[in-house]
Amino acid sequence: MLTLMTSWRFLARWLLNHPKLAERVLILGTDALAVNLAREVLQRRETGYEVVGFVGDDPQLVGQSLINPRVVGLMDELESLVLHHRPDRIVVAMSDRRGRLPLDLLLKLKVRDEISVEESSRFFERLTGKISTDRLQPGQLVFAESSRWGRFYRRLRPVLDFLCALIGLVVSAPLMLLTAIAVRLESRGPIFYTQERVGLHGKSFHIVKFRSMRLDAEANGAVWALQNDPRVTKVGRIIRKLRIDELPQFINVLRGEMSVVGPRPERPQFVSQLEERIPYYSERHLVKPGLTGWAQVRYPYGASFEDAREKHQYDLYYIKNQSPVLDAIILLETVRVVLFGRLSR
Fold first, then answer.
1. Residue 129 reports pLDDT greater than 70
2. Which of 150, 227, 282, 315 is deepest in the core (most CB within 10 A)?
3. Helices in the chain by DSSP H: which ranges?
């Protein structure tokens, strides 16, 4: 079985990376939206997509390379370009589409040639597992599909969260006891550390963690955690890497302040600043914060406004697509992160 599974993984990776088996994508547009989309595809070759080129409406750009693929032609040449490049998918990535998009031709290509035609935001979301906030429209979240099973699962989640937190506390009790002893032996001060965070509907609560920093870590005010942060103790560096410092938050889940899976709660000092700089940042407070989340298993520990913006895009994806399957994937990925110490700081 080990040989079979290893061979299958190598075969699957080879198939996904083989250029002749990749799904060929033709991008309509030549502005920053189209270029950023192509960059995301190039960074994720293992997803099985290949950008064959851009199609624009400026003759001077034809033949020029915008990032790696070049502009292969003009919009009024689209039918002949499709015959020549044989794309499997056409992605519309144009900031201004008024009077520029050949809708009749796109419909004909979709029906006659069986070419998938997709809007850029939907393709970006499926490709990256996040929602871009640059051109996000509220309708993308409002009109997202919601099944009966999804609504039933959301009603059942408080019960599941309570049971998972109770089991988690019992199972992790020996490890938490050893951690408490290690924290106490290394430095003077409290074993646990409480910190104000913003939760559901913007209500504040106090999160519980094992103390992993010196007592004077924030003597000059709240700051982002840094790579190799000098404020972190020796024991703290280990428990932060393995995420053991987060285990006491099962208590917050039992109190109903948090869920097992959800966006990580942020501090009020940072929330007010982030809401001013990041579009739709307050939407993350529509669901309970979580012990772990989609952003935590897909992106490293945040240490700047840019990191917070990137993680917020993953949180928006979770808010829109939350389901039992996605929660199960997040929990399995969390186990992998903990075991291998990935994405920590």
1. yes
2. 315
3. 2-17, 32-43, 78-85, 103-112, 120-128, 138-142, 148-186, 234-241, 250-255, 268-277, 294-298, 305-321, 324-340
